[in-house]
Amino acid sequence: MNKQTPALLIRLWHSLWTTLRHAWAKRETVSYPEIKRPLPGRWRGRIVLTRDPDGEERCVACYLCSAVCPVDCIHLQATQRDDGRRYPETFRIDFSRCIFCGFCEEACPTLAIQLTPDFEMCEQSHGELVYEKEQLLVEGQGKHPSYNFYRHAGIAITGKAIGEGVGDTPPVDHDTNLP
């Protein structure tokens, strides 16, 4: 008998015991998609664009989400309505590149971009994972139901510019506010 034989037998017995112990343990496998596990509260899934309580788009096309995106998967083009309100003419997210880091949600000053718990986005081709504005825009306000960016920031109305209304303060000209 070799000197190492008792040690090998102990290790073999330990491995056999571990296997038998797990053979009768409760299974962790679930039958997805029939049974879905609860997601953690801070789960980050599909990105949506929300609306303000007036039903208008919250996004003001400031490009912060596109600038902060580490994988450069957000592309948009800004435009402006006659009343001065900005909105994205096009808004596109390539979910095949998105890593769901949540930086775009954190950078958004109008709370327009929000990450939802939806993670079931399988498609047959790469092109189907590029979501356009119509696919991203939802009807609700999402996580912030009463927030309206333009009620806080102000907007020009017919006959009056921003800051000319009663009780309004004129906007800060960032070009003359430099040191």
In short:
This protein has 179 residues and is an alpha+beta fold.
Can you describe this structure?
GO terms for molecular function: 4 iron, 4 sulfur cluster binding; iron ion binding; NADH dehydrogenase (quinone) (non-electrogenic) activity; quinone binding. By secondary structure, the chain is α+β, with helices and mostly antiparallel strands. It has a domain at 46-151: 2-Layer Sandwich (Alpha-Beta Plaits). It has five helices and five strands. The strands form two sheets. A three-stranded antiparallel beta sheet has the order 2-3-5.
Radius of gyration, in angstroms, nearest whole number: 27 Å
Tally of strands: 5
Query: How are strands sequenced across the largest beta sheet?
Result: 2-3-5
Mean pLDDT: 88
Strand content: 5-15%
Measure the end-to-end span.
86 Å
Question: Judging by the overall fold, what is the CATH architecture of the domain at 46-151?
Answer: 2-Layer Sandwich
Q: What is the makeup of the main sheet? A: 3 strands, antiparallel
Q: Give the helix tally.
A: 5
Q: Low-confidence segments, ≥5 residues, pLDDT <50? A: none
What is the CATH topology assignment of the domain at 46-151?
Alpha-Beta Plaits
Any idea of the CATH class of the domain at 46-151?
A: Alpha Beta
Structure class:
alpha+beta
What is the helix content? 10-25%
What global shape is seen? elongated
Order of helices and strands: HEHEEHEEHH
